[in-house]
Design brief:
There is one protein chain. With 180 residues, the chain is of the alpha/beta class. It folds into two domains: 111 residues, FAD/NAD(P)-binding domain (3-Layer(bba) Sandwich), CATH 3.50.50; 53 residues, no CATH class. The protein is built from four helices and eleven strands; from the N terminus they run βαββααββββαββββ. Strands 8-2-1-11-10-9 form a six-stranded mixed sheet, with helices on one face. A hairpin with a 7-residue loop joins β10 and β11. α1 runs parallel beside α4. It is elongated and about 55 Å long. Bound molecules: flavin-adenine dinucleotide (FAD). Flavin-adenine dinucleotide (FAD) binds next to α1 and β2.
Length: 180
């Protein structure tokens, strides 16, 4: 059984998985796509996100593959002024494509012990006294969570998911019974 079942291996789900693993939470990520998407959506990171990567010791990995640009610039035909004083140690925009961001976050999550199941679409969620059951069209999607498991939808709002949050809030406990 898992403590947390994350639906969606986008940046939100992968970053969350890494954070949870830092707290030794037993987590699985279920992703319907069999391969990481090559579609480039986001094109970079701003100061606050860069700070978070720094706090997690990940910044070097991002700097290695990204390109620094000055803050400010051009958006929707409007010249944005450069802020006079930005309260950050990372006063730049880091340009890198979202598939690269996803890859780095996935590598980190896996290093920390996250199980990521691709080709695992989630279509159903049920809860009973013994736990939480997530279901989908293939066996890969079908997993069980502890009775207090949180099932977190990290898929975007277009495919909104009900979320089951722990009846008894943390401290997180590892289940002795493993049902996978
Ligand atoms: C056209 C476009 C351009 C964009 N440009 C920018 C930009 O320039 N800068 C910027 O910062 N942001 C941009 N964004 C936004 C950015 O891409 C999103 O904010 C980011 O991808 C959100 O991350 P996420 O993890 O929440 O969702 P996603 O990246 O969408 O990941 C969700 C994942 O959940 C999976 N999933 C969905 N439903 C299920 C299910 N039922 N079962 C299993 N898996 C499921 C999906 O396959 C997907 O992999 C753009 C978005 C779009 C669409």
């Amino acid at each position: 059984m898992y403590d947390v079942i994350i639906v969606g291996a986008g940046p939100a789900g992968l970053a969350l998985a890494g954070e949870l693993r830092l707290h030794d939470v037993d987590v699985v990520v279920l992703e319907r796509d069999t391969e990481p998407t090559k579609v480039v959506r986001a094109l970079g990171m701003h100061a606050r996100s860069i700070e978070l990567m720094d706090q997690r010791g990940l910044l070097d990995r991002f700097l290695e593959v990204g390109t620094k640009h000055p803050v400010g610039g051009f958006f929707a035909g409007i010249q944005k002024p450069v802020p006079e004083r930005l309260d950050t140690a990372h006063n730049f925009v880091l340009s890198l494509q979202q598939p690269v961001i996803d890859r780095l976050l996935e590598e980190r999550a896996v290093e920390l012990g996250t199980e990521i199941r691709r080709g695992a679409e989630v279509v159903g969620l049920e809860q009973d006294e013994d736990g939480v059951t997530v279901t989908g069209p293939t066996a890969r999607s079908c997993v069980r969570g502890t009775p207090s498991a949180a099932t977190v939808a990290a898929a975007p709002c277009g495919s909104c998911w009900a979320s089951t949050f722990p009846a008894n809030p943390p401290p997180w406990t590892r289940s002795s019974a493993r049902w996978r």
